[in-house]
Amino acid sequence: MKTYNTHQRKSLIDYLQNNSEKAFTIEEIINGIGGEISQSTAYRLMTKLVEDGLVHRTVKGTSRSFVYQYISDKKCEGHLHMKCIDCGKVYHLDSNVTAQIQNNILSSTSFEIDNHTLLMGKCGMCK
Questions:
Q1: Vertex 28, ends 30 and 117: CA angle to 5°?
Q2: pLDDT (tens digit, 9 = 90+) per residue, 75-127?
Q3: pLDDT, tens digit, 9 for 90 and up, residues 1-10
């Protein structure tokens, strides 16, 4: 299906790109861009951005709500991710560190971790 680059989609992507170090709920995103898109439009656009690999969607802490963070499609290849259970921010682990962790676990347990694994914990700001 063709993707249309509407004003609403552009506003959404621009906001997420400019705040790529943070993860937001749909409500926070709508407020952040000045309420210029409806909630249903934001969910529809966000679903497409997740499918396209531009945005990462995770559960916020232990709640039932999701947070979204801009990642670009190339930024998330070949490494593990860490997620703060309090603020929901997703961190990208260095590829070399990822390889060391994967090799250590594989050699000690014969268990292979894929690069889509999300490590949960608390970031420096929240601990």
A1: 115
A2: 566 788 888 888 777 788 888 999 999 999 999 999 998 877 778 899 999 88
A3: 456 678 999 9
Report residue 59 as tokens.
């559960």
The model scores a pTM over 0.70 = no
Are 40 and 27 within 8 A, CB to CB? no
What angle in degrees, to the nearest 10, is found between the helix axes of 39-51 and 7-18?
70
Neighbours of 85 (CB within 10 A): 14
HEC secondary structure over the chain: CCCCCCHHHHHHHHHHHHCCCCCECHHHHHHHCCCCCCHHHHHHHHHHHHHCCCEEEEECCCCCCEEEEECCCCCCCCCCEEEECCCCCEEECCHHHHHHHHHHHHHHHCCCCCCCCEEEECCCCCC
Rounded Cα distance, 81 and 83, in Å: 7
